[in-house]
From TrEMBL:
This is Major facilitator superfamily protein, putative. InterPro entries: MFS_dom, MFS_sugar_transport-like, MFS_trans_sf, Myo-inositol_Transporter, Sugar_transporter_CS. It is a multi-pass membrane protein. It is found in: Membrane. Keywords: Membrane, Transmembrane, Transmembrane helix, Transport. The keyword Transmembrane helix applies.
Amino acid sequence: MDSLVLQQEYNNSSINNDNDQKQLHQISRFVFYFMIFHASFTNVLMAYHIGLFNNLSDHLDYIYSWNLEQKILYISLINSLPQFVAAIIALFGGKWAQKHGRRKLLIIFNYISVLGTGVTLIKHTYALVAGRIIIGFSFGIWSTIGPLYTLEVACKKYKGISGVIYSIFFCLGIAFSYIASYGLPSDPKQSQKNNFWRIILGIPAVLDQNEARKTLEKYYQQDIVDFSK
């Protein structure tokens, strides 16, 4: 198997700090692309969260017993609040990464997304809105640290394709949200008693957990992420 040397060096980016040590890895081409794919995976998660409620919109009023006015209001809120929160959090993403390190920040906010996803599984309107707000915090970090992290994983030769992969993963996340929604009842009224909506809302929690622990640790070649460092 062809191999290549990937050398990560510091630059003047605001997200670099002493927590992110210069590393030299001898890795196979397969492992290199594996790293790129997983560094881009935050885009799949973000796109899935964004696309999901387009598919659920006809079911939500039956699940939460909304009237027409409430449906218009709450669908607007659950779609816009995560983006609004993300825009605010993104302003601080670079500073937080400089202080705490990219790795820790991505792991921490993946778990915050797990928390937000868990809250949305509660069958209550306010829980749904609160959960989406919490998820918005993760959106802000994923949208700022994610692209830079992807570029830094890539060696110079593959900088271009890493950006392409990151964009493709967003499209895959949207597509995945539509595929997952095929299990919803054909009659939205049946969602009052059918709990499949909880399954498709809960899928990101499993993916977030895996992304936070397994893939980032694999990249840093550690068995356990040590939050004390």
